[in-house]
Amino acid sequence: MGKMVGITEFKAKCIALLNEMERSGEPLTITRRGKPSLTLRADVAEKTPSKPVFGMMKGTMTWAPGVDPTASVMDEDWEAQWEAKWDRLLPDRSTHAE
User: Fold this and answer.
1) Are 26 and 3 in contact, with CB atoms under 8 Å apart?
2) Contact at 8 Å (CB) between 47 and 22?
3) What is the per-residue pLDDT across 29-86, written as a single tens digit (0 to 9) for each?
4) How many Cα atoms sit within 13 Å of 81 on the Cβ side?
């Protein structure tokens, strides 16, 4: 049946009573003038052990034939290409007098 407490006691000790109810799994009945008024039950979800996040996707990816997933996707001279692009886009600073 669980624990029964008066509404005044519940108001004074609400957090502690709820924590106790969650730990024990027993319902908590709140009374008014000695008569049951409200029954609380903890939402006890089944705790299933979760899989570790690291490695959970292992073996789920495939690559098309001829694709090397370890190959670099950037050109070897990417930095030179980047510099050349910005040299074209930025105004020539030598023509601006200070």
Assistant:
1) yes
2) no
3) 999 999 999 999 887 666 666 778 888 888 888 889 988 888 887 777 888 888 888 8
4) 5
pTM of the model: 0.44
Q: Name which of 29, 35, 22 is nearest 1 in CA terms.
A: 29
Quick check: 27 and 39 in contact, CB under 8 A? yes
**What pLDDT score was predicted for residue 17?**
92
Domains of the chain: 3-40 (3.40.1620)
Q: Which residue has the tokens 């692009």?
A: 85
DSSP structure class, residue 59: T
34, two tokens: 């000695």
DSSP category for residue 93: G
State the Cα–Cα distance between residues 32 and 16, nearest whole angstrom.
19
